[in-house]
Design brief:
heterodimer; A: mainly alpha; 14 helices; B: alpha+beta; Glutaredoxin; four-stranded mixed sheet; 42% helix; 24% strand
């Protein structure tokens, strides 16, 4: 229905000739922008309400009672449903250790939480449908669980630069009772806040996508990111790491690239590198952990993400 | 009354501090506002998502900024 409305706008009201490059590109741009912004708003709003029922404080109490491997799995799962912002990475990290949660389990959470952030999931659902979103989440969990277990096995506790005093006795929290109306209002405010931050990136991303859609030949994309280039996965991963804040803008681009021949595994690696690893987060973590630990953390996750890309390209 | 704003200096923390100052002025009570930026002190409150607002040693909200009216209500309810 929305497709038809845009067609009417472009071809009848604006009287642009059908089948020509420019009208095609414009049609695609308007169609995609409005579709993405609408779905993004609804999904972020819904996810935020859901998330208001889970807090990192509750997760900490729960995780502190689990053993290592169960802990890794649960920590990765909790990373999906709890909100995460790189500005609270430090209190979160120290808070987990304070509660005597093992280092590896803490890392499982720290890998999973930004990877499964609401913008990435909303964009994936909107642009690629639930199957790709589920694959992304599934493989993301795998990277978080394995990464956490590996880091936990390496005995890196001494690489934390701040002495963490464990909390004595049983952990508990006072339940904050929040009315549903308040949750709705909070979710509304939060969604608006996110939209203000990302709408421009979405426009730029879709604009660039529309341009590629209309003007860049498929053969060109296939030659770089298609099946014949064995280095496509590592390149996509390394390019993705510095792009953290632009996840919203990069996803529309990836949609176009995959439709033009980029392999899905390469695309998954790219998306994961964008969300999971961010340089600002590394700078923040530098205050409490040694460069060695940060390098191991980034290295493990990078290798994991590349592994997912190759595995996926090989299966499909 | 002593109001503490816990936060490591992110934009949200500054917004909460500003709103708290306005709320105190509006409600006309005498309160001392303190910004806590030391991470170890923040941890002592068991807070893991900043910013957080603490009134007389009790953590009342974590992880988000509040509007001036919401803070006025917190102050009154206290």
């Amino acid at each position: 229905m929305w497709k038809e409305s845009v067609d009417i706008l472009i071809y009848e009201w604006l009287k642009m000739p059908q089948g020509e490059k420019l009208s095609d590109v414009l049609n695609f741009f308007i169609y995609d922008t409005v579709k993405i912004l609408f779905l993004l708003t609804s999904i972020i709003f819904a996810v935020t309400i859901l998330r208001s029922y889970f807090s990192t404080e509750k997760v900490r109490v729960y995780l502190s009672k689990k053993n290592e491997y169960t802990g890794n799995i649960l920590a990765a799962l909790f990373g999906i449903i709890t909100p995460f912002c790189s500005c609270s990475a430090i209190p979160l990290f120290l808070g987990f250790l304070q509660a005597r949660i093992p280092l590896g389990v803490t890392f499982s959470y720290l890998i999973s939480a930004p990877l499964n952030n609401e913008i990435a999931i909303a964009m994936l659902l909107t642009m690629f449908g639930w199957k790709v979103a589920a694959l992304y989440i599934g493989f993301g969990l795998l990277v978080a669980i394995m990464g956490g277990i590996i880091i936990g096995r390496m005995g890196l506790e001494k690489e934390i630069l701040i002495e963490v005093k464990p909390i004595e006795g049983e952990l508990s929290i006072d339940e904050q009772r929040i009315a549903f109306k308040t949750r709705l209002k909070d979710a509304y405010d939060y969604t608006l806040d996110i939209l203000q931050k990302i709408w421009l990136y979405v426009l730029i991303g879709v604009g660039a996508g529309a341009f590629i859609h209309g003007y860049v030949p498929t053969e060109f994309i296939t030659s770089i990111a298609g099946g014949n280039n064995p280095f496509a996965v590592p390149i996509a991963t390394l390019v993705g790491i510095p792009m953290y804040s632009n996840a919203a803008g990069v996803m529309p681009l990836i949609e176009i690239l995959t439709s033009k021949g980029m392999l899905m595994g390469t695309a998954l690696s790219f998306m994961m590198a964008i969300t999971a690893l961010s340089l600002p987060e590394a700078m923040i973590l530098k205050r409490i952990m040694s460069l060695k630990l940060i390098a191991i953390f980034f290295g493990t996750v990078t290798l994991g993400i590349m592994g997912v890309g190759y595995l996926f390209n090989a299966i499909l | 009354m002593k109001i503490e704003i816990l936060g490591t200096g992110c934009a949200k923390c500054k917004a909460l501090e500003e709103a708290t100052k306005q709320a105190v002025a509006q409600s006309g009570i005498f309160a001392q506002i303190e910004k806590v930026e030391d991470i170890m002190k923040i941890m002592e409150y068991g807070v893991m998502s900043t910013p957080a607002i603490v009134i007389d040693g009790k953590v009342l909200n974590t992880g988000k900024t509040l509007s001036v009216t919401e803070i006025v209500e917190l102050i009154k309810a206290h």
